[in-house]
Amino acid sequence: MMLDLSLNLIDYVSLFLIIFVGIPHGALDGAISITLGCSKRVILQLGFFGAYILVSAGVIIMWYFFPVVSLIFFLFISIFHFGCGDLDWKKNKTYLINGYFHGGLVVLGIIFCNKLEVSYFFSVLSGNQLSLLWTCLYLGIFLWLSALIFIVFNFKKMKLSRNYISLIIIIIVFITMLPPLPAFAIYFCLIHSFNHMKRVVPTLLNFMEKGKAISLMITLSVLSWLGGAVALYYILNLNIFPEAILKVTFIGLAALTFPHMILVDGFFRSKYKI
């Protein structure tokens, strides 16, 4: 039986911020593609956007047929994407371990500090058969503790800055004191998106004028919002509004995260070492 937990005003404000403040950082992907050579020919530009749309559509289709597996995969790639996205790029195992610790603190921290509410969100997103999901999340906690032990024993070698340690403390404070949606909105909008823009924009400006980058970001943001509005219209025929907006926000976020992560983490950051 699905838990009945209504969203309050703060939850709706948090969803608004995730959609209209957080998601636009991913809309820089069009500009990022230019730095990777996709603007040299029209066929390359069409290929990039076609591949991006196909991957996003593939995620939505997978979520329809395999919601629990899709949610598990989304949560774990988000751990690495968030964690590594807040760190300086390095090509070694320490980077991945520290990235898992950092991203796990956010994702797993929010989940396990708010199990009742998050269980409701999970049931909305993937149904009520959640035993496999929770098994994987407890495994995720074990891996996170292993990463923490590694960091403790290698603390001096890792040379973590005071700013990074302060960031960890700030994250711990708000994920333990706030409900899940406000906690995620703060991290996603003020930390993850900000760090992404700070790393990406200087490189983009070596390839294009600031106005062009902004226009591309606005265009892709509006297209994402329009797609979400259409999805919300149809999903409302089958769901009450709180459940519909949760599905559109987080399944839509997953659909955008997969190609975004491939582009940014797989190509852009590794090429420019940022």
Please describe what this structure looks like:
With about 270 residues, the protein is mainly α. The protein has one domain (about 10-270). It is about 80% helix and about 0% strand. Helix 1 packs parallel to helix 10 (about 180-205), helix 3 crosses helix 12 (about 240-270) and helix 11 (about 210-235) runs antiparallel to helix 12 (about 240-270). The termini are far apart.
What are the key terms here?
274 residues, mainly alpha, 12 helices, globular
Give a nutshell description of this structure.
With 274 residues, this protein is mainly alpha-helical. The protein has helices at 9-22, 29-35, 42-65, 67-85, 93-113, 115-126, 131-153, 155-158, 162-177, 180-204, 210-235, 241-272.
Number of helices: 12
Percent of residues in beta strands: under 5%
**Radius of gyration over all CA atoms, rounded:** 19 Å
How far is the first residue's CA from the last residue's CA?
A: 46 Å
Order of helices and strands: HHHHHHHHHHHH
Q: Give the tally of β-strands.
A: 0
Strand-pairing-aware structural class: mainly alpha
Helix content: over 70%
Major sheet: none
Number of folding domains?
1
What ranges have pLDDT less than 50 throughout 5 or more consecutive residues? none
Summarize model confidence as the mean pLDDT. 89
Shape: globular
